[in-house]
Amino acid sequence: MKYLFYLLMGIFLPLNVMAQALNVTDFGAVGDGKTDNTEAVQKAIDEASRKNTTLVFPTGTFMTGMIHLKSNVTIELQSGSVWQAVPDLKLFPEIPSNADLSQSGGYTMSRRAFIFGDNLENVTLTGDGTIYPSGDHHEAFPMHEKNGSKRPYGIYFRNCQNITVRDLTLTNSAFWMLRTYLCDNVRIHNIELFNHANTNNDGMDIVDCHRVHISDCTVDSADDGICLKTEAPKGTEDVVITNCIVSSTASYIKLGTGSFGTFKRITVSNCVLRPTRATKIVHGLGYRNGITGLSLMSVDGCDIENISFNNIVMDGMMTPIFIRLSDRHKVTHTEYNDHPITAGTIKNISYSNITATNIGSVPVNITGYPENYVEGVSMHNCKFEYNTAGTVKDLTIEVPENSKNYPYPKMYGTDLPASGIYFRHVKNIIFDQVQIAPAEGDPRPAIHFDDVINYRGENVLVDYQDIKKKQFVIKNSGKLKAGI
Asked: Whole-structure pTM over 0.90, yes or no?
């Protein structure tokens, strides 16, 4: 009898759990692609949260305005289901926020969202369906808007714990597709994300979050693909990004630009970075192949340390690696206006097994600013192949510091006086098995050192040959040894 009891429990308990799942159609939602289901879906989510259960979207297109998620709920979009935003700005009221929306204070701040979760725990968005925030409906969400206030994020979690987004297709938000801010224990897995509806269309932005796993995702976005930021003293720490394919017409994988708190203990591994599949380029700078492959920057006082990039193949961007320490010192949330800002730091950064091909005219550049050094950068088994040459003019321009400017490879007004790697205000560098293949006819030396202290290179090759003295320039530098 005991064994019979356990057998029956094994059969009927799963059926009972399945029976507890709710369906949005039970609350009056209609998947006809026309009906405004905002009230019905919100009631369904509220009830699913109360019962600590799953809410199912069946096959169909379910239109809603802004929805407030609740704790202890799983939302499952079944195959063939689409959760779409009604393209009507009135259905997306402003979210209370201290984000500075002025052009000078912070362009990338929105106070609206399609799907919003605030101060929640234990929320999962999953399934084989699609979330479509209608960002390409420009009559509702204008193109080239001065700032983001009239364009909602696709999905926005703020001050949340234990958040999972997995297996879904996310397409065409009016602003960033997925933003998590001040969250802990975030898991993003197996997402197919395409976001080319408007300018400033980031894929996903992880902001001041701890314990984050991003894995097995395909991201293709008009602006930054996977972007880590810190806009609060909390910082972004303990992050793993792995097994992803990322495309962007801006930065593929980026730490910054918002860099107010800390970036610590972050790894990026086993990723492919490749040009976009989009047929229309909407990014304001118009670079189809993207701007940077791997970007890391402290410009607002951020301390960055213990970051690792490993097993990454990238193709077709203006510059493959961009590290920038500077003193822009912007505050994007007004509650931190009185928070002291000191000079940031960048140290203990590792690159290994990196292959970059079809690179533009701007070399790998690793730069600090006077008396503020980027420290402890290592490269092992890395190869950089360029397809666009610089000019003789790049050799004669005095590279300005421009430490207050927006950080990106063109910030200096020149492609820099190096065809492979440009160092300035850097110390304690180790290179081993690094290959540089400049573009044909590039007149610039392979490596340029300016204010560099303690560099050691082994097996540094230019066009598969040991680097020669004429292929590097040294200015204001000391203790440069071996393999240069």
From this structure: yes
